[in-house]
Specification:
Elements: H1 2-29, H2 34-37, H3 53-69, H4 75-98, H5 111-123
Helix pairs in contact: 1-4, 3-4, 4-5
Bound molecules: zinc ion (ZN) (2 copies).
Length: 146
């Protein structure tokens, strides 16, 4: 039973993280934090961009949850694990499948990868703070599936 609860906490955290990321992206990154996020909507010079601080921030949050929950293996620990898994999925989907920051030497195929790429490139059509669409990172609206 404990195992199912643990899986439930992790899965719920991943779903909640996508909702939080969507909200943050739409209302903060394309809002008051645009001065940071705009580096992701412009051509990148070099390996990193200022926008990467968001990834580092979520990394710090997940590590804090893991470390503070570690001794008692509490819910917080598993929430931290969920945030870390979300971070890895986000990195794989957004930075590898869509932006290809790490070249795997092949293009990810499949309906989901193509839909993800299509939706996120619609987001990148806009290089301004306002007027962007498609703020999700892992969730893709079914209309983008062929
Ligand atoms: Zn954006
Ligand atoms: Zn992007």
């Amino acid at each position: 039973m404990q195992f199912l609860i643990t899986i439930g906490i992790i899965v719920s955290t991943i779903i909640a993280m996508e909702a939080i990321a969507w909200f943050t992206h739409k209302y903060l990154m394309h809002g008051p934090l645009w001065f940071i996020h705009k580096t992701h909507h412009m051509p990148r010079h070099g390996r990193f961009e200022l926008n990467d601080v968001f990834g580092i921030l979520f990394g710090v949050i997940s590590m804090s949850c893991i470390i503070s929950g570690m001794h008692t293996m509490s819910t917080l620990f598993w929430i931290g694990i969920g945030i870390s898994i979300y971070g890895l999925l986000y990195f794989f989907a957004h930075d590898i499948i869509v932006h290809r920051r790490v070249k795997l030497g092949m293009r990810m195929r499949g309906q989901y990868a193509e839909a993800l790429r299509k939706a996120h490139l619609i987001h990148h059509k806009t290089i301004t703070k306002k007027g962007s669409e498609e703020f999700g990172f892992l969730f893709v609206h079914p209309k983008h599936l062929k």
